[in-house]
């Protein structure tokens, strides 16, 4: 039976935030749940049968498929290669998203310069800045090279023309929201335009086995701007994170078809460029004070990477009827629960005091495993009693004051031992299975009171007076 060729049209409604489509108007988007964002985009053909066409290449047994074409190629930036799973894969499309000013363009320009010096021709398309502005940044970070080709364009057809003329080994498009196609109505950055630009670039990448890096903007909520389908079309989605008041920058892969998604790359952003940090502990522990009350170090897991974080706490008498609670780098809700546990279970009089808790170097202690360190830092600050020298504390604190087990404890203690820590306070539940690193003394505590007894210095003289 011949395929049907009749066609009809129906109204189409589309969400301006995420690109979700519906056959009729609705007040709330069914994908992103936003109100008032569904607008009519005209009529589109209804679904119809598609006639079969001969394939361009026959299907082959999977063991005969050539895999040499997808071998990774290092970028020259070790921390980025760690996140990507070894490097760039020919034909892979990578979306690098992050807040304005976080360092996306600086990192990719450094990658472009390194690959150009390694013999790969790189085409860098800038749609946000002029070519002269990019040249000045490249000169500042030492990325100027004859094989790094630069063009300032905002039209998709012209961008594809540059690809044909230059025949690069790497294409960097900064950014996908600034490029527009003349075949699609709407301004650059709109849902339809981003979808069309991404489809055109991805098609070229797959056809030419060309690795492509797309720079993406983020919304005020931290999500990637444009249609959500963009994240599904690309092969790798990387999030570039960092506090603009800190030098530390982190890149993590939230989607990766060619490697793991639990790796984190650390970078140091300065006036002279961006440098990968194979050992970022120097940003957090280089100025660590010894013998000072109110400080405690913990080891968190960021993906599969152990990260040392120093917690500092300050407890001071309050001059107002409502004591102040301020946090930086730690979740305020978890600090409030920890204060309640210290007040209720250990009888620490903190309700009438101002409490300040912060991390060092712009680090973020979002993991529950840092609860013990926060509690010990608060108790140390309140009693003005320093903790043992060379101590780390890892564990989650329950509302009953018990220390709960955590994952990856051996990996955390191994990193602490490498950094020179000699003592650790961990949950009692790990006693039967934990293999302590050589040269480290591990103290097991069932509850927060016991953790303070083991962590305080000197333990025997302080313990009874601390919680009375």
Automatic annotation (TrEMBL):
Annotated PROSITE patterns: RECA_2
Residues bound to ATP: 98-105
GO biological process: proteolysis; recombinational repair
The keyword Nucleotide-binding is assigned to this record: yes
Keywords: ATP-binding, DNA damage, DNA repair, DNA-binding, Hydrolase, Metal-binding, Nucleotide-binding, Stress response, Zinc, Zinc-finger
RecA family profile domain mapped to chain residues: 69-218
One Pfam family here: Zn_ribbon_LapB
Motif RadA KNRFG motif, residue range(s) on this chain: 255-259
Family annotation (CDD domains): RadA_SMS_N (cd01121)
SUPFAM superfamilies cross-referenced by the UniProt entry: P-loop containing nucleoside triphosphate hydrolases (SSF52540), Ribosomal protein S5 domain 2-like (SSF54211)
A GO CC annotation given for this chain: cytosol
Domain characteristics, as noted in the entry: The middle region has homology to RecA with ATPase motifs including the RadA KNRFG motif, while the C-terminus is homologous to Lon protease.
HAMAP family for this protein: RadA_bact
Official protein name in the record: DNA repair protein RadA
Species for this entry: Serinibacter arcticus
The organism's taxonomic lineage, starting at the top: Bacteria, Bacillati, Actinomycetota, Actinomycetes, Micrococcales
Record gene name: radA
